[in-house]
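Render this sequence as a predicted structure.
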Amino acid sequence: MNFKTAAAVGLSFGVLGVGSAFATFARVESMGKNTTYIMDDVSIFDNAANINLYPNYLIGEFGPYTQDVPTGTNKDPQHPNFGGIFSLSLGDENNPDPRLSIGGLFGRINNELMRYFPTKVVGETSGDTTAVPETVTNFDGFLGGTLSNGDAWGLHIYIAHQDGGDKTESGDYQVEGGAYASAVQADGGLNLQFGSNIDFEFSFGLARIQYGPEHLNFFDDGDFSFLAKSRAFFTLDALDGELVPAFSMRLMQAPGIEDKHAQAGLGINVALDRGFFWMGADFIWNKLKAHDWYFDYESGESIYDSQGEEHPHWDKRSDIGGMITFGIERNIWWDWFVIRVGGQKSILYTKCDVNEKNKSGQGICREDGNFFSTNPLADGTADDHVGFGFGINIEEKLKIDVTVAEDLLFRNPFQGEGRIFSRISATYSF
């Protein structure tokens, strides 16, 4: 989408947008689960150049509320986050470009990195088992700008860190000598316009994942990870929409684990009468290797034993298949109220190859074999099959997006309490 027209389009369509609306994690979660084929403010985490599409706005949310809570008790959603983007126009009243933008977000959990943290780690020399602490800094920083022709650039850094302490059951932070966890990512991106009908994006990032049981310097044990994403928006005037080819890959490395992923697909987004629709189809390839990782498939806990670093015995798990995704939203009753629904379905053919010396049945694969797998059916997370929600738009300034709990309409009201919403996010444009 052309940067010079993005602001005008956003104002014209409100919460609908034509791929470029001030929206949130809750909007994405309830309308298809990802932003690959639409331009949403969450797209700034895929390509930092996109911060220039969302000048001068604030964003915040309570965080996902998917944990089990006993009936009659209360527990707030975990991991709230908030931040904003501020822009300074260096152009004139006819053309805001060139423009300089700066932004930050506090509290976001980068699941693309955190998924490689085990629950506990066994020390290489001491043999002691230490819990991997929850990171506390969790900061996203952005710097970007546009050229006079509307082409944009952006830089992004993510820092999640904890060293020497951990949170107790009471919620206080105390000294925990062996506690260490760090995830750092630095990336940059471009958004280039070729005429008025083609918009091309590309981003590349470098990441570092480390954890205890002792303090590590940035260039100590471990390896670097690489991430790349690209996509293009081709305007389709006949459909009042866009055709979107996309490609992404990541080469992730963390202690005892290597994960390679490639994904390519084609999608479309279309503006409807008082609404918006998108869908996409992707080819997916994964190859995961791990050694000395042990999983409790009942509790979900994982342990990495770093004592096996010198003579690793790798287990392998590979996937190949595809995924279909879709999302739709539409204004109903009033112009300021929109409902949304979306979903995703992956079908992967999985092959497991367990090293003959790792027959414990607790690794990334329990045993050798082939089978089909899919994403979670209905666990309430952003990865499961279907989402539902609504949005409120107040004078094109304050916008609130809500993901509805998937069991809400099926719950027995006389059986006890339960969550009504699983995510609530908001933005304010000024």
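Summary. Helices lie at 3-13, 25-30, 111-114. The chain is about 5% helix and 50% strand.
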